[in-house]
């Protein structure tokens, strides 16, 4: 389906910018919570496009390109929130007690701007002249085309908005059930493997979370199967084996034994798997990335020599502006890094440390943005190896910073070096995730005849808006709940958020700078990662690319808690079964798109409810302000959670199928 675009369509408008910023504020808050709770984030382009179309349909002169700018601005929320994979580490090591606004805003904004600049020269090579599939970018373009094309499209747009609303309401109600203590927050079972003194232990858990079911549906069956394989490796092989080798002390139950070994040893091996998978991915991308840069420079040179005017749909921000903005960004970056060190134990080394930090942001950021951008084209921005990039970035930053600070090493200096390495990594990760998002958005733009430079300006607006939201939401959650591994002196609730990615990143930084890193466990994980890469290669080759087992997905499932991964796997399988069932039905394609929007609503509703709950905790000063006293046993609350969850997911899939038929009728 193609839509003829006028030579100069309405794109960047005041109403579009305001709408994009409002959606960004909501989605960023949702993403920050989800990332801190479970260590995963989701792509916001498609729900943003649907909300935009439904609201802008009130204006007769709204264009597909204007809707595209709204989703471009809002998509920054989905990615920029990934900086919370690192930032809580500064609270965990005790460097910050509260989240300061300006340093956090500065790290996000500077990194985000650089992410846009670094990936701009790659657009022609990796988008215009590339056969990369860009699954999420293409899906967002399809949603925009369908929604703008006809009366049926308008009907689907309205149904899509209702899908997001119903999904959000259902997941908020489900989350409220856990908050009032009428259902269990987690369904879990742990048991001994064997008998006697040397018995091992293992188990499985599943968080009562529709958001995670939704995340699984959005990730798809390939990643879902990879995560299922990771669950089997972690909880079916590694945990039973390692608990058998390290028997529990007297009085320690199966769950404490299994979770203790997993958290201290198995998840570090998972980090090794992720790191190795990321390194091999980087190595394989060297050739296409260099080719992309060469092609971009060649195109710019030809355009200059021929003196021709580029078509509107090929106009990027001028390369001169890109270079100037990149260089000018180093001034606030340097000031930010210098102010971070000011008055602390590293102030005497401020100059070399700032120089190393700026150099690292420039070079590592460029590398990370290019890799993430390419991977977004290959497997989608939600599945891009941000975790692997974060692990490699903190290892590089900690080694670089540690070498500079070796001369004055002491306990206070070590803590300051760890904090500085985490702060530098935050900026690099912001570069990577926005680079990840930029190329995905530009693919959507290419398919709807958008103007690239206007999209790039839209994304910069989204970066600034998202950067304003991350610090206050992070501080609200810090004050209400706190984080696992942090002192949490000012936290009200006694149920800290897991922030699993930040815990790993801060552990790695402490290990590298303090010299206590378990390199042996990382090494074992790296060997498992190599084996998984070989299996993935063989699987792809034997099936002509039809099947794969992404090693990063397997590594994430070893590293993240089973309570997070199990519902994600369930969501991937139920999503696959739903899509298969809709394959040849009337309105089946519409039903599939509505299913995606319901699942996006699951994520938004639950996350926003819990952000609001954090606000209530802070206002009331109570750790569980909604809890109701009741006589239900733990087993009974688990059964309630199971029945209610199945009913909601099944009911909304049926609603999607019925709505798809109605739109097609």
From TrEMBL:
Keywords: Membrane, Transmembrane, Transmembrane helix, Transport. This is Oligopeptide transporter, OPT family. Its main location: membrane. GO terms for cellular component: membrane. Coiled coil: none annotated. It comes from Duganella vulcania. Pfam families: OPT (PF03169). The lineage of its organism: Bacteria, Pseudomonadati, Pseudomonadota, Betaproteobacteria, Burkholderiales. It is a multi-pass membrane protein. The chain crosses the membrane at residues 12-34, 40-59, 71-95, 101-120, 161-183, 189-211, 218-238, 273-296, 317-337, 349-374, 386-405, 417-436, 521-539, 559-578, 594-619, 635-653. One of its GO terms (molecular function) is oligopeptide transmembrane transporter activity. It is found in: Membrane.
């Amino acid at each position: 389906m193609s839509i003829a675009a006028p030579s100069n369509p309405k794109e960047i408008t005041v109403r579009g910018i305001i709408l994009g910023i409002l959606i960004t504020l909501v989605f960023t808050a949702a993403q920050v919570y989800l990332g801190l709770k479970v260590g995963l984030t989701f792509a916001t382009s498609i729900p943003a496009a649907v909300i935009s179309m439904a609201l802008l349909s009130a204006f007769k002169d709204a264009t597909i390109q204007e809707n595209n700018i709204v989703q471009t601005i809002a998509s920054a929320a989905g990615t920029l929130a990934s900086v919370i994979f690192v930032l809580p580490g500064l609270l965990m090591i005790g460097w910050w007690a509260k989240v300061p606004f300006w340093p956090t805003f500065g790290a996000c904004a500077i990194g985000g701007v650089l992410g846009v600049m670094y990936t701009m020269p790659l657009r022609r090579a990796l988008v215009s002249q590339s056969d990369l599939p860009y699954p999420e970018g293409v899906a967002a373009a399809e949603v925009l085309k369908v929604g703008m094309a006809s009366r049926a499209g308008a009907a689907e747009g309205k149904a899509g908005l209702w899908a997001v609303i119903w999904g959000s309401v259902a997941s908020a109600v489900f989350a409220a059930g856990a908050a009032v203590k009428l259902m269990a927050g987690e369904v879990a079972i742990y048991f001994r493997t064997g008998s006697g003194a040397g018995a091992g232990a293992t188990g499985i858990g599943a968080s009562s979370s529709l958001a995670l079911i939704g995340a699984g549906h959005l990730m798809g069956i390939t990643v879902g199967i990879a995560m299922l394989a990771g669950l089997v490796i972690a909880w079916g092989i590694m945990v039973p084996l390692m608990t058998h080798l390290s028997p529990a002390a007297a009085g320690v139950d199966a769950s404490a034994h299994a979770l203790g070994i997993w958290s201290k040893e198995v998840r570090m091996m998972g980090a090794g798997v992720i790191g190795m998978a990321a390194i091999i991915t980087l190595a394989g991308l060297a050739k296409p990335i260099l080719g992309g840069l060469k092609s971009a420079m060649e195109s710019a040179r030809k355009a200059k020599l021929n003196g021709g005017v580029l078509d509107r749909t090929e106009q990027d921000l001028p390369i001169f502006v890109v270079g100037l903005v990149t260089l000018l960004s180093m001034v606030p970056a340097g000031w930010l890094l210098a102010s971070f060190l000011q008055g602390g134990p590293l102030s005497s080394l401020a100059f070399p440390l700032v120089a190393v930090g700026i150099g690292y942001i420039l070079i590592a950021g460029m590398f990370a943005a290019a890799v993430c951008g390419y991977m977004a084209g290959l497997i989608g921005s939600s599945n891009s190896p941000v975790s692997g990039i974060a692990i490699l970035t903190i290892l590089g930053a900690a080694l670089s910073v540690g070498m500079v600070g070796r001369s004055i090493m002491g306990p206070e200096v070590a803590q300051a070096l760890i904090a500085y390495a985490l702060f530098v990594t935050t900026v690099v990760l912001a570069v990577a995730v926005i680079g990840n998002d930029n190329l995905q958005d530009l693919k959507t733009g290419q398919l709807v005849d958008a103007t690239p430079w206007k999209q790039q300006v839209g994304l910069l607006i989204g970066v600034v808006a998202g950067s304003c939201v991350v610090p206050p939401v992070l501080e609200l959650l810090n004050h209400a709940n706190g984080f696992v591994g942090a002192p949490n002196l000012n936290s009200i609730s006694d149920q800290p958020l897991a922030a699993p990615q930040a815990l790993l990143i801060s552990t790695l930084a402490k290990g590298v700078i303090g010299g206590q890193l378990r390199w042996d466990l990382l090494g074992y994980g790296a060997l498992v990662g190599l084996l998984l890469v070989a299996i993935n290669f063989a699987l792809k080759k034997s099936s002509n690319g039809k099947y794969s087992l992404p090693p990063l997905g397997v590594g994430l499932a070893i590293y993240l808690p089973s309570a997070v991964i199990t519902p994600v796997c369930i969501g991937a399988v139920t999503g696959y079964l739903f899509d298969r069932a809709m394959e040849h039905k009337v309105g089946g394609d519409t039903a599939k798109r509505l299913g995606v929007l319901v699942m996006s609503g699951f994520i938004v509703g639950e996350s926003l409810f819990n952000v609001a709950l954090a606000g209530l905790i802070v206002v009331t000063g109570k750790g569980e302000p909604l809890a109701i006293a009741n006589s239900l046993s733990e087993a009974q609350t688990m059964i309630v959670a199971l029945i209610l969850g199945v009913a909601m997911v099944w009911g909304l899939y049926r609603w999607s199928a019925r709505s798809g038929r109605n739109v097609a009728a």
